[in-house]
Specification:
By secondary structure, the protein is α/β, with parallel strands linked by helices. Helix content is about 35%, strand content about 15%. The strands form three sheets. A seven-stranded mixed β-sheet has the order 4-10-9-8-7-5-6, sandwiched between helices. The protein has a four-stranded mixed β-sheet with strand order 1-2-3-13. A hairpin with a 4-residue loop joins strand 2 and strand 3. The radius of gyration is 23 Å and the shape is globular. The two termini are about 35 Å apart. The model has no long low-confidence stretch (mean pLDDT about 95). The structure holds pyridoxal-5'-phosphate. The site of pyridoxal-5'-phosphate has 15 residues, from helix 5.
Length: about 450
């Protein structure tokens, strides 16, 4: 049974990634309650939170240990400024825990309030590091086409999605791009494995062209999230590591989505056993209960800052870097993840999730299904968008059909993205995929009805 979802236009609220015109016309859906993998709107309608809200609510909604830890911490002190060299027990303890979870050698943590600030910090740390090493010209950063790294000016410049640049130019100088490792739509028009990982080797070409002396770092997501859940082929990340090490270029991973169990490991890059020099993180570190992000740094990078001597100061950070209350929420989140073995759960559920999703390939409109850990994408054929000459792209119509059936997913381009909370049970995963299946069937049927009516009228 489907119900049309009713929305209300908020008078003063601005919503970031959606059309202001559409919000004025169609309004927003007010969410009032969440429990586990479910959220409820103001009409009492329940939805499966198929995107863990915004790829972040890993432990699910309404976990009581988080507000308990937050209330306890808030009663001790309002705030402590790490910017000025103060600290707090939760900030120290969280940094220690993160280092224990991270690949070996990443030993220091700079906290931020979210993922964009974390990537902004990577830009500044890369510049700082190479300048202190005596190579100020080594400030350029290589990122991947269609990667997403945030929407502050620096992070949006690193982002490789053109619609984050339109209207906002000029961007930050010194960002170079590589093709992304998307085998089914290879930008180099090659086939894996015969290509020999040519997309990774493009980094070598780029370095030859631009000069290693001008490139400070490569930044990539272990699996592109917003760009469409792009899972690189085996050996890709290892090849990037090898090329960066050979040319004395730092390798940074943006783990804002993939961190904290999403791919079945504390950090997604651990799946490929690659040790980066820097990692940015956010979202899953608090499961979205409070805003927090940060950067993990290799010891040698931090040593360089220390060796700059007593006159040198970082002059980088944010008022809320290492906020004690937020760090307490993160610690409670990590404790819950440890108790319930959530960091590795995605690895255990992956085969079943993938098996369920592959059934969606029976729909002629489905071009590809990609799944890794507990994140997935269902990609539609481009021609599907024109099916029935609907006002909206096919994926947007499917997202709406999912919403009408009580499932929240994300549509971007030709893709429906899925990223359920890590606590999801196998039976709930089955329901989630069944609802998506029904939505695709309904939109396909409606599209072919409209198309055949139109051809009757035109014919
Ligand atoms: N990096 C990645 C990979 C992301 O997916 C996001 C947000 O979705 C960001 C960075 C930006 O994080 P925030 O929105 O917390 O600034």
């Amino acid at each position: 049974m489907t119900t049309t979802v009713h929305r209300f236009a908020p008078r003063h609220l601005v919503c970031g990634f959606v059309s202001p015109y559409q919000v004025m016309q169609a309004g927003t859906l007010r969410l009032v309650k969440g429990r586990g993998i479910y959220v409820w709107d103001q009409h009492g309608r329940r939805y499966i939170d198929g995107l863990a809200s915004l790829w972040n609510v890993a432990i699910g909604h309404g976990q009581p240990s988080i507000p308990r830890a937050v209330a306890r911490q808030m009663q001790t002190i309002a705030y402590a400024p790490t910017l000025l060299g103060f600290s707090s027990q939760p900030a120290e303890e969280l940094a220690r825990r993160l280092v224990r979870l991270a690949p070996r050698g990443l030993t220091r943590v700079l906290f931020t309030s979210g993922g964009s600030e974390a990537n902004e910090s990577i830009i500044r740390l890369v510049r700082l590091y190479w300048r202190l090493k005596g190579h100020p010209e080594k400030y350029r950063i290589v990122t991947l086409n269609r990667g997403y790294h945030g929407s502050s000016t620096g992070a949006a410049s690193l982002t490789g999605l053109p619609y984050f640049h339109e209207y906002y130019e000029p961007l930050l100088d010194g960002v170079l791009r590589l093709p992304r490792p998307h085998c089914n739509r290879c930008e180099l028009r090659l086939e894996f494995p015969q290509c020999g990982l040519a997309c990774a080797d493009e980094l070598e070409r780029l370095i030859e062209r631009e000069g290693a002396h001008s490139i400070g770092a490569v930044l990539a997501e272990p699996v592109q999230g917003v760009g469409g859940v792009i899972v690189p082929p085996d050996g890709y990340h290892q090849r990037l590591r090898e090329i960066c090490s050979r040319h004395d270029i730092l390798l940074a991973y943006d783990e804002v989505i993939t961190g904290f169990g999403r791919l079945g490991y504390p950090f997604g890059i651990q799946r490929w056993r690659v040790v980066p020099d820097l990692i940015s993180f956010a979202k899953g570190v608090t499961s979205g209960y409070l805003p927090l992000g940060g950067v993990l740094l290799r010891e040698e990078i931090y040593r360089t800052l220390v060796e700059a001597g007593p006159e040198f100061s970082l002059h980088h950070g944010f008022t809320y870097s290492g906020h004690p209350t937020v760090c307490a929420a993160a610690l409670a989140n990590l404790n819950l993840m440890r108790r319930r073995r959530l960091m590795s759960r995605a690895r255990r559920l992956e085969p079943y999730f993938n098996e369920l999703l592959q059934r969606l390939r029976r729909h002629p409109v489905v071009r590809e299904v990609r799944a890794v850990g507990l994140m997935a994408a269902v990609e539609f054929h481009e021609h599907a968008t024109h099916l029935g000459a609907g006002q909206w792209p096919f994926a947007v119509r499917v997202r709406q059909a999912c919403l009408d059936r009580g499932l929240i997913v994300r549509a971007s381009g030709e893709v429906i993205a899925l990223c359920p909370p890590l606590i999801i049970k196998p039976a709930e995963l089955r329901t989630l995929v069944e609802l998506l299946d029904q939505a695709i069937a309904a939109v396909s049927a409606e599209a072919s009805r409209t198309a055949s009516n139109a051809s009757r009228v035109n014919g």
